[in-house]
Amino acid sequence: MVQYMDKNSGFAQWNANKNASEKKSPFSGFLWWFMIFVGVWWILGVLMAPKTTEIANDATPQVDISAVPVVNLENEDIKFQVQGLRISDIELKKFNVSASDKVPVTLLADKSYAEFGLVANGTTAPNTATIWTEKNGAMTWRNSDGVEFTRTITTDQYTIQVSDTIKNNTGRDLSFAPYGRIARTNDVQNSAGVSVGAIAYENNDLERIDWRKMDKRSFAYTTTTGFIGFADQYWETVLALNVPDQTMTLKKTSDIYGADVVAHAQTIAPGATGNISYVIYTGPLEPSALDTANKYINGIDNTIDYGWFGFLARPMLWFINALNSLVLNYGVAIILMTLILRMLMWPLTRKSYTSMIAMQKMQPEMQRIQKLYANDKMRLQMEMMKLYQTHKTSPMSGCLPMLIQIPIFFALYKALLVSVQMRSANFLWISDLAVMDPYFILPILMGATMWLQQYLQSPSRGKAFNKNDITAQTQKMMRWMPVLFTIMFAWMPAGLVLYWTVSNIFGIVQMYAIKKAGK
pTM, whole model, 2 decimals? Predict the structure, then answer.
């Protein structure tokens, strides 16, 4: 990105001319743009920096459910426990805690759980301490009024569907309001650059609430249908009721984050049978898994936080995954994607480099015009425009490739952060491309290639450095950019640094080829 802002770029020349014509400080143009860049970077760092959440003492009364039998259920993707109304300890079989720790990722562990139940009017309904009877793969329970409750649980990949059948054996109308709840202990982990915390989908609108906001206040929503739950960097747990007219709430009590939903009561006539269904998704924030879950929870496929440049991050992530399916390594896939992107940008960058070379040839004439018309701004601008027209170039022609790479940079940054597949993906000495290079080899290599690219773009100086030469001073300052970028990129995801390093190397080869062809 910085290689297009050196001494010979159209932007640098335009900035130098503007400074000369307005008699500003020689450093003002460069410092202005550099301060903007650093300012934006600092703001993003503040917004995306990891935060810690203090854990409060547990003061929530606990229901004794030790007498309730535990049933273990599983499919090829998950394994979980059912204890009466509660579902917990959901193991994701295909995902380990880390590359070195082969223990499966477990969601809703310890005191965390999901619970589905009924609030009855005119009779009693099963509660968390109710002991069910297992019969033919279903759980059954009969209350003192003779009302029969039957619960069946099925799974599809990472979704768990719960269905309650209620048979009213009384001689009066009964009503039941279904509810769902996720209780999560304060084990939250914030992630730089990714929205984590509570999520609520109401009236086709997705709202994200980070942990800090939940620490301060509660949230409530009224909707026809929707879902509610919690999302981390790579996983999420959300639930939905397949019943209209719902009230969803988010609240923190002591050290427990709660996501609750209750629906409008359903009336069951005497002798009739009612059916109520619930569904919970507990798995990775992965497009194909969410597409499957979308059949049961409408709108869940929109819960991945792709950021501002989601329109680029989505296809880039898909493209990286497609390349990985061919080469079977995400590092190689990133390299191939970088080369393909640079090839697509070849005509644009070639025009930029050609314009840069033309600007180098214009240097003596530009300096002559600036000196000759230093006190006549109007004439200076006219003569400079004629010079640009003669050489068929523009002072802004070198900026477009840089501007195009900015959204690509941030889109790829976001794609790498939210990609579950990139988590623990190895490449050479790097065990996880989604986190920083532990040995700082890639950032140093990136800085070296950036310096080499700047060196090749700089013309040989036939005279001593002139402290009053604006563009020379800008070039001198720009020499520090590889150092600054090396420091900033040292803590970036290794996959992103790999992309930028390969892009620099491609730019070096491209610059060499253009210069050789122009001789």
Answer: 0.76
